[in-house]
Amino acid sequence: NLPTIYVVTPTYARPEQRAELTRLSQTLRLVPALHWLLVEDARTPGVVATEVLAKSGLIYTLLSMETPSELRHRPGEPIWVRARGVEQRNAAVTWLRRERAWDTTAVVYFADDDNTYSVELFKEMRYTSRVSVWPVGLVGGLLYEGPLVRHGQVTAFRTAWKPQRPFPLDMAAFAVALHLLIIHPEAQFDPAAERGLLESSLLSSLVSRADLEPRAENCTQILVWHTRTEKPKLKHEEEMARRGHGPDP
Ligand code: UDP
Ligand code: MN
After folding, report:
1. Is 199 known to be catalytic?
2. Could you report the per-residue pLDDT of 131-140, keeping only the tens digit for each?
3. Which GO terms describe its molecular function (predicted)?
């Protein structure tokens, strides 16, 4: 009788969405007692998300939450100005509070759709009293960023980017006990958080640094990587459309 892991994934329509969701769904399929909360950044869930989930063999819930236009990326603006996936993650947390408040042993993990996850990672987070933490590969201008552990306690962080952050952790670096989100009903990701402080905006209202539970061999193993997918080049699609071979598959 394993505690359930609720995996929260923001996602949005783009040419590579089906590839990302297929890969992630097939990783998650290898993990027992897992419930996937996929949150589409749109007014209603898209066809791609619906189809991938239907084929996935997973227990899932498909939600949708459109990022309000004032928080959206604007053309010409650098991509990092606005945090992505914030409203979607918060919508999932709201859903969990409403639908799963009774699930006192469950754990919540915020898994972006483009990262790379080892199946072992989920064993590490399964039993989380408050917030469990581990390193993340290929992030923050480093080969890996993560907590530094002494005598079983997180005492510092290997980080180079804004090291003074309250919790210098990537979104993929922690899991939260659902009961913490229940007993702190105001806690959420702050859509107005400064760049890099999104994770801290949630964690600061839930725990202090001393509460962090190091996993993955005292944070010496990398089991998740902040990989990013290259934008596909589709310059020949127009020509195909002109020739009557427009997209279908
Ligand atoms: N995302 C979203 N809406 C957007 C852009 C991104 O819901 O307009 C999702 C995306 O699918 C991913 C998460 O938010 O699951 C983080 O986005 P991304 O991977 O682009 O961020 P980065 O890798 O730059 O941290
Ligand atoms: Mn990403």
Report:
1. yes
2. 999 999 999 9
3. galactosylgalactosylxylosylprotein 3-beta-glucuronosyltransferase activity; metal ion binding
What distance lies between CA 131 and its chain's CA centroid? 15
- Count of other CB atoms within 10 angstroms of residue 170: 25
Distances (CA, A) of 149 to 24, 56, 142, 146, 215: 30, 37, 18, 10, 10
Q: Is the CB of 88 under 6 A from ligand 1?
A: yes
Query: Which residue owns the Cα nearest ligand 1 atom 2?
Result: 85
**Annotated binding-site residue? 12:** yes
Task: Give CA–CA dist 177/104, Å, rounded.
Answer: 8
228 lines ligand 1 (CB under 6 A): yes
The answer, yes or no, to whether any atom of ligand 1 lies below 6 A from the CB of 89, is no
CA torsion sign, 139 to 80 to 237 to 21?
Answer: positive
pTM comes to 0.97
The encoded tokens of residue 119 equal: 């199946």
Give pLDDT tens digits for 16-56. 999 999 999 999 999 999 999 999 999 999 999 999 999 99
* ipTM above threshold 0.85: yes
Longest dimension (CA), the chain: 66
